[in-house]
């Protein structure tokens, strides 16, 4: 793969590059640092495989490189990665783009909302209420994380602060939605769907 062809940016890729700007490290240490800093709530590092795949992609594009391979009889061999000059430049560009651009993400929840009428109102209500419970727990966790670091400068808590506000905003929207479905103010069935389809989806011109 041509190192001059910058890979498509990713949140996990940016966090990996940022970690390596601080110091070279192997994947296991990187994962532990990400989790220790609470970044597992903003990027998916549930599986080490995702980190390995991301690093391999960054390496193929010349953004990181192998610094050394550590061999120890008491544990498996570990590869230490370091960031390249191109990687530093790319990390800066990705950060600038991610801070500036909007509308480039396609969350699964929005896609599901666009066709939730495939399910019955009762089933949707059950699912949305369960989601609200999870949001409530996540919001409490975010508030706890912020309260647990009173001496830490706000600069290093902006991701958690933003996460808290997003969770609160979604919860504030989803609760009234559940009430509307529960009391029949928002409802649908197959007959109604057919009527709406006939009204707003005219037959295709087959000529």
Oligomer: single chain
Q: Which stretches are low in confidence, meaning pLDDT under 50 for 5 or more residues running?
A: none
Number of helices: 8
Domain count, please report it: 2
Based on CA atoms alone, the radius of gyration comes out at 23 Å
Count the strands? Answer: 3
Description:
It is built from eight helices and three strands, in the order αβααββααααα. The mean pLDDT is 88. β2 (64-72) and β3 (75-83) form a beta hairpin. The chain has a three-stranded antiparallel β-sheet with strand order 1-3-2. The chain has 207 residues and is mostly helical. It has two domains: 11-100, Winged helix-like DNA-binding domain superfamily/Winged helix DNA-binding domain (Arc Repressor Mutant, subunit A, Orthogonal Bundle); 108-200. It starts with 10 loop residues before the first helix and ends in a 7-residue tail after the last helix. It is elongated and about 65 Å long.
């Amino acid at each position: 793969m041509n190192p001059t062809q910058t890979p498509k940016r990713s949140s996990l890729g940016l966090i990996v590059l940022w970690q390596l700007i601080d110091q070279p490290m192997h994947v296991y240490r990187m994962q532990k640092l990400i989790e220790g800093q609470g970044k597992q709530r903003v990027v998916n590092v549930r599986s080490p495989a995702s980190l390995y795949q991301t690093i391999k992609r960054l390496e193929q594009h010349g953004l990181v490189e192998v610094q050394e391979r550590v061999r120890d009889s008491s544990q498996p061999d570990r590869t230490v990665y370091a960031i390249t000059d191109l990687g530093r430049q790319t990390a800066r560009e990705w950060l600038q783009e991610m801070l500036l651009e909007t509308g480039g993400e396609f969350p699964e929840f929005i896609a599901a909302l666009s066709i939730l009428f495939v399910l019955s109102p009762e089933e949707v209500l059950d699912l949305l209420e369960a989601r609200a419970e999870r949001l409530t727990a996540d919001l409490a966790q975010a508030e706890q994380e912020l309260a647990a670091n009173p001496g830490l400068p706000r600069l290093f808590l902006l991701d958690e602060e933003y996460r808290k506000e997003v969770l609160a905003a979604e919860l504030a929207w989803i609760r009234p939605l559940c009430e509307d479905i529960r009391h029949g103010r928002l409802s649908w069935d197959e007959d109604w769907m057919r009527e709406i389809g006939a009204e707003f989806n005219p037959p295709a011109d087959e000529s």
